[in-house]
Amino acid sequence: MKNTAVKTQLHPRNRHRGRYDFPALIASHPPLAAFVSVNQYGDETVDFANPAAVRVLNQALLHHFYQIESWAIPEGFLCPPIPGRADYLHYLADLLAEDNKGVVPRDLTLLDIGCGANCIYPLIGHREYGWRFTGSEVNEEAMRAASAIIAANPGLNRGIRLRRQKDPQAIFSGIIHKNEQYHAVMCNPPFHASAEEAQQGSQRKVRNLGLDKHAPLNFGGQQDELWCEGGEKAFISRMIDESVTFSRQCIWFTSLVSRKENLPEIWRALENVGAAAVRTIDMAQGQKQSRFIAWSFMDTPHRERQISRR
After folding, report:
1. Among candidates 123, 112, 41, which has minimal Cα distance to 86?
2. What is the CATH number of domain 22-308?
3. Which DSSP letter does residue 197 get?
4. What is the 3-state secondary structure (H, E, C) of 50-87?
5. Can you tell me the distance from the alpha carbon of 163 to that of 176, in angstroms, rounded to the nearest whole number?
6. Consecutive 10-residue runs of the chain (310 residues): their mean pLDDT?
7. Model pTM score
């Protein structure tokens, strides 16, 4: 069920494997220049402890690599690390290619559970692979921000649509409509199990950055983005239980799993619901190890037929 090789680099197709080319990024997005400085090693960089610098760097990366000319998120919402987010999409593309004679399929329909104010997976996935996305979201302000990003960039509304999840306890119900088909589901579930745990995690990150405990968080995050009762293990368990109902409407269900120790219980849950295929796909960004779990209720021939019909 799991891969044993430990990865240390981003996916080979990831556009962010090398050092940031700041002159090129500034040429694409001139406001970045105000945040670039030379560090003690003589390298150009930005202050990653500065929320404004991180947001403007993201704007430059999205403009330069993905032709996203306008991207803004409300204060305090999650500002995602783009290289790691892109990795999830590329490894998911490889998984889908396995059912398409090794060729990454385009013209697919994906569902992003909890797309957030940043809408990062649909933006990158649509630009990289031409995939069409439905993004679900429970938070009204996040929904408005994501909608504004789509509206501000010509053509995105043909590849990305958003749906509000009105039931905070539901994941797929109310989002996947009758007779709809999806090739894959993506999800970055809430990591923490409580507000207190989320606050402690934020304080650890602040300490690791060498900041004052009252410093603003460069990564941000709202309640729905950071925690839910029971944490990611409970959220993914709900995903698994609910996915049974939609087993014929989606080829692959996937979710990031931040805590490796949660995997055995997740594997048992998938065995209990009778998943036909389960994959654990490891990823890495330098020293940071991550992974996503993927499951399908269709056998290989069925998945191949579904992909070929797109």
Report:
1. 123
2. 3.40.50.150
3. H
4. CHHHHHHHHHHHHHHHHCCCCCCCCCCCCCCCHHHHHH
5. 9
6. 59 95 98 96 93 96 98 92 96 98 96 97 98 97 97 97 95 97 96 50 49 52 54 94 98 96 97 98 87 98 92
7. 0.88
